[in-house]
Each structure stands twice: as C-alpha cells, then as structure tokens.
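hey so i finally got around to running the thing on that chain from the lab meeting. sorry it took forever, my laptop kept dying and i had to restart like 3 times. anyway pasting the input first so we r on the same page abt which one it is
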Amino acid sequence: MNRYMLLDGPLRGHAVDELPDGYEVSEISDRIGVWTKTQEDFDELHAILELMTSAQARLDTQTLGEAPDGTPIVANNDDTRQAISDMREANARQDRLLRRMAPDLY
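ok and heres what got predicted. didnt touch it at all, straight out
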C-alpha cells in the first residue's frame, strides 16, 4: 500500500492511502500527490523531472567505476561538470517549488 503526501490544493499536508480527485502522482516521487489544478506548477514539476533525468543519464555515461568505499568515480570533464550543474539546478528548482506549494511542510 502506498501513502501519499498531498501538496497544495484543498488537502495540502494530508497523508492518504488513495489520491483524491484533482491530485496526481508526482513524477519526482511516487509518494507525493500533486494538485494538478494549477497547470504552471504541474508543468514546472515535469520540467524539473526532465532536467534531473537528463543530468542523471549524462552522469551515468561519465561513471568510470567505484572506489573501494562505493563512491562513484566519474570522469573530470565538461560533460560531467555540466551534468552536476544541471542536477544542482533541478534540485534547487524542486526545493523552491515544494516550499511554495507546501510551506508548512518545511
């Protein structure tokens, strides 16, 4: 059974077993229900996910192996630096969006 934390909308901050009408599972986390009545927020969530997915795929191609402690070893080049920068941007955008959508949860 999945529990969903609801962001924004009339039930903001509630945890539920089933998503009520007007909420959709976030692509960022399958444990978050997002109020989809605000198209701008919904579009931003999708844009963040695309940026995160792209950055992670690019980082995966730059991974050379693992250190003995399990830390990934990645190539030190422009592609890696750009992917890391994109991931940081996506995380910052996600943080800003979620703080705006559910400030009382932070």
